[in-house]
Amino acid sequence: MNFGEPGYEERETIANGLDVAGKSGFSSVALNPYTNPILDHSGSIAAVKAKALNHPVYLHPIGALTKNSEGVDLAELLDMKEAGAISFGDYKAPLRNPNLLKIALQYAQNFDALVQSFPQENRIAGNGLVNENKNSTSLGLKGIPNLAEELQITRDLYLLEYTGGKLHIPTISTEKSVQLIKEAKKKGLDVSCSVAIHNLILDDDELKEFDGNSKVLPPLRTKKDKKALIKGIKDGTIDMVTSDHNPIDIEHKKVEFDNALNGSIGLESAFGALCTLFDTEKAIQLLTNGKKRFNIPEYGIKEGETVELSLFVPGETYNFTQNDIISSSKNSIFLNKKLKGKPVGVITQKGFILK
Fold it and tell me: Domain Dihydroorotase catalytic, which positions (predicted)?
């Protein structure tokens, strides 16, 4: 997930973003290095952690894999891990150079680090805006073919098989991607993956209104892809879900569709959206599965244990509106959608925050 700070505070500050997370039921969040400047050295990691020190919600930064996320030189991975980075990736800037990913996977094994690689081959995706199919053609919008994702995943899995190490592939979106990762796991490769909640719930029929809030990356795919993603969740191929929370200010969203920035806020709607597909227990499992993979402490409910509790009201069905949005930015893909279950807040060792 993203906050705006540092660099894009008009979208979301760390302080307000943590309030949003807590009131949305998240006691711990992982912060992508989608900032300005990029979180690519130990000082920047320490700085964002310091801003969350006294907040009830725990903030776990992800360090950039390459300097300035430019895909040219590796960043200071070991130093960032010692400063508190839980993983390394260039957010949604795909690594074009396969040798750089090979070196990263090899080097990261020296300190048991998790490397991330965004699944898109930009030379195939080109200037695409939405999923490539009949909808994109009828709407006159440039498409991003499934191949762009699947080709990158195939490459990265071959590299992982060669190097060993640990790889996380964030926000997959196609049926073939699920199959590729399932086969890799059968081979014994140490690979995990996630899916954005909106890719589980919505499909590219949403684009017919040309609503900029529906412009996300990876794009909303077909009903067939969505069905395969849900199956991948149920059979364990997909390890976790993500809110893919990405606040974008109105000046960069309420514009012509071609010019709108990708992204949707997702913290406030995450629990309620998931519960439209899964029961409460499964939804909680999917939202917390990432802790083990990213080496984030997990606590149970027992005497003497560290307190980390999420509070929610399950079962209530409601229409998600602007009144449910706490974020500074209002770019929700779930506006006016039916959700089920409402988060209330969190209680942690550092305090509590409630709606």
Answer: 5-176
Whether the CB-CB separation of 115 and 167 falls below 8 Å is answered with yes
Q: What is the pLDDT of residues 122-131, one digit of tens each?
A: 999 999 999 9
CA 30-214-354 angle, 5° bins: 45
The yes-or-no verdict on residue 305 having pLDDT over 90 is: no
Domain borders along the chain are: 14-354
Q: Taking each helix axis as running N to C, give the angle between helix 267-274 and helix 280-288, from 0 to 180 degrees, rounded to the nearest 10.
A: 140
> Has residue 302 got a pLDDT over 90?
no
Asked whether the beta carbons of 166 and 159 are under 8 A apart, the reply is no
Residue 86 is predicted with a pLDDT of 99
Specify the pairing of strand 308-319 against strand 338-348: antiparallel
Among residues 244, 249, 279, 324, which one is catalytic? Answer: 244
* pLDDT value, residue 299: 86
Task: Give the predicted TM-score (pTM) of the model.
Answer: 0.97
CA dihedral 32, 37, 38, 44 (to 10 degrees): -80
Residue 215 contacts residue 259 (beta carbons within 8 Å):
no
Question: With contact defined as beta carbons under 8 Å apart, do 329 and 12 qualify?
Answer: yes
Q: Is 244 a catalytic residue?
A: yes
pLDDT value at 85 more than 90: yes
pLDDT of residue 300: 80
Query: What is the overall mean pLDDT for the chain?
Result: 97
Domain 14-354 has CATH 3.20.20.70: no
> Which residues fall within 8 angstroms of residue 353, CB to CB, at 6 or more apart?
19, 22, 23, 55, 56, 57, 345, 346
The DSSP secondary-structure symbol of 344 reads E
> Within a 10 A sphere around the Cβ of 179, how many other Cβ atoms?
15
Q: Is the dihedral of CA 188, 194, 200, 205 positive or negative?
A: negative
Torsion angle defined by CA atoms of residues 96, 99, 104 and 110, in that order, rounded to the nearest 10 degrees: 170
